[in-house]
């Protein structure tokens, strides 16, 4: 039996009973002959509580100390889990991200992994131990400071360790039974997907699906690490994410993989931009220099009478204030008239590998939204995705309408979210 990396989210280790349940699952994997490496998130809402506490102490906490604080949550989880495993008669050693050899750049709060040197993990495994690693964290290559990896960091830690250790699979344990055709908290008739390609999963993740984060899937695709998304609350088979379907069974991928939605973005419109070369470049250079990621971009046709155009784009709400400040500094140089900020939007995306060769998909998508009375503000497409921006209050109705229109509703039991978060 080969090496398996297992990752458990915050809902799986939310309390003492959850930790003991997870410990038993890990020991069962060990008894079956696997070498086991475990990556854990902070318990329940610990990270959110630490963030709130930091903001009460300091409105703008220093990045280095903020990371030092946030990594405490995972260290608590890993130590408690090691204790629970030892109570079951097996040896376990816990490691922080830096002890596990997770080397990152120096960008605090959203560091990126540069390398993984898991020497201590290999030693622990060779000695017959279960290795437990604190997710979401690493150590900077230059200053040796503690860093955090940002949203989805524990998933990324798990896949990075799986690649470095040449694991046969990375199992992501959460509080749903796998990847569904829509968020099961919104669409009760969402169907579980048995297998999905890395490409389709990347599109779902980048479009708002929370069960796996984009960085984690991208890392897995780069190093061809199969991911098995499962629930820690049940013994059911989950969803395989890989280049090819698992086993001997050949699966013809469905035209539509799923519907994703995201309410974490805002929209900025730069009004009255002179329609000449270099103006858009100056706008987006200001955004890039502040390390702000943007998503959808739409530029209107310029008015013939004025030679001015409007440029709209979406970005994370958390970066909204920083983006507005950066653009205001460019107002004189670019010569635009004003800025409009709107954080009451939602993005809805339809994802599927067969969309390009099925011309009725686009029409069906827009018809479903129209029948539900949902107005579209922005549109963006790729070969396997159509995304639109709508009003935030319309998102639930829109997702359900599109899910039903494309025949994705399940005829069987409703999807279950065991922990209530979908993570």
Describe what this molecule looks like in 3D.
- The protein is of the alpha/beta class.
- The protein has a domain at 3-252: Carbamate kinase.
- Helices cover 33% and strands 25% of the residues.
- It is built from 12 helices and 20 strands.
- The protein has helices spanning 16-31, 46-57, 63-87, 119-126, 153-164, 198-206, 214-223, 279-289, 320-329, 331-334, 360-371, 395-405; strands at residues 3-8, 35-40, 92-95, 102-104, 113-116, 130-134, 137-140, 146-148, 169-174, 195-197, 227-231, 239-242, 258-262, 265-274, 297-299, 308-316, 338-342, 345-351, 378-382, 385-391.
- An 8-stranded mixed beta sheet has the order 3-6-2-1-9-11-12-10, sandwiched between helices. Strands 5-4-7-8 form a 4-stranded mixed beta sheet.
- Helix 1 crosses helix 3, helix 5 runs parallel beside helix 7 (214-223) and helix 6 (198-206) packs antiparallel against helix 7.
- It is globular, with a radius of gyration of 23 Å.
- Keywords: Amino-acid biosynthesis, ATP-binding, Diaminopimelate biosynthesis, Kinase, Lysine biosynthesis, Nucleotide-binding, Transferase.
- It catalyses: L-aspartate + ATP = 4-phospho-L-aspartate + ADP.
- This is Aspartokinase.
- Catalyzes the phosphorylation of the beta-carboxyl group of aspartic acid with ATP to yield 4-phospho-L-aspartate, which is involved in the branched biosynthetic pathway leading to the biosynthesis of amino acids lysine, threonine, isoleucine and methionine.
């Amino acid at each position: 039996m080969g090496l398996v990396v297992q990752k458990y989210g915050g809902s799986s280790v939310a309390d003492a009973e959850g930790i003991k349940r997870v410990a038993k699952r890990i020991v069962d994997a060990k008894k079956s002959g696997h070498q086991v490496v475990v990556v854990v998130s902070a318990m329940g809402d610990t990270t959110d509580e630490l963030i709130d506490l930091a903001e009460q102490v300091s409105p703008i906490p220093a990045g280095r100390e903020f990371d030092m604080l946030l990594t405490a949550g995972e260290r608590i989880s890993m130590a408690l889990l090691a204790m629970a495993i030892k109570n079951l008669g097996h040896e376990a050693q816990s490691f922080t991200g830096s002890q596990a050899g997770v080397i990152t750049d120096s960008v605090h709060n959203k560091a990126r992994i540069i390398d993984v040197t898991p020497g201590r993990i290999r030693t622990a495994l060779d000695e017959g131990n279960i290795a437990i690693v604190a997710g979401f964290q690493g150590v900077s290559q230059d200053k040796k400071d503690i860093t955090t990896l940002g949203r989805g960091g524990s998933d990324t830690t798990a896949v990075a360790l799986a690649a470095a250790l040449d694991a046969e699979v990375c199992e992501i344990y959460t509080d749903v039974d796998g990847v569904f055709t829509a968020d099961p908290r919104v669409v009760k008739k969402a169907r579980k997907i048995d297998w999905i390609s890395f490409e389709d999963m990347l599109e779902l993740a980048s479009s708002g699906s929370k069960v796996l984060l984009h960085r984690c899937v991208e890392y897995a695709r780069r190093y061809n690490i199969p991911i098995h998304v499962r629930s820690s609350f049940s013994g059911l088979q989950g969803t395989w994410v890989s280049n090819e379907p698992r086993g001997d069974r050949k699966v013809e991928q469905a035209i539509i993989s799923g519907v994703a939605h995201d309410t974490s973005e805002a929209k900025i419109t730069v009004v009255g931009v002179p329609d000449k070369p270099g103006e858009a470049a100056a706008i987006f250079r200001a955004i890039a220099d502040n390390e702000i990621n943007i998503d959808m971009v739409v530029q209107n046709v310029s008015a013939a009478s004025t030679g001015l155009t409007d440029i709209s784009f979406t970005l994370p709400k958390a970066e909204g204030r920083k983006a507005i400040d950066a653009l205001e500094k460019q107002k004189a140089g670019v010569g635009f008239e004003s800025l409009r900020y709107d954080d009451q939007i939602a993005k809805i995306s339809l994802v599927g590998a067969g969309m390009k060769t099925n011309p009725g998909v686009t029409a069906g998508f827009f018809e479903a939204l129209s029948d539900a009375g949902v107005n579209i503000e922005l549109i963006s497409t790729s070969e396997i995705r159509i995304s639109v921006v709508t009003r935030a209050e319309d998102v639930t109705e829109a997702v359900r309408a599109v899910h039903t229109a494309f025949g994705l509703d399940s005829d069987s039991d409703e999807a279950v979210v065991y922990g209530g978060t979908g993570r």
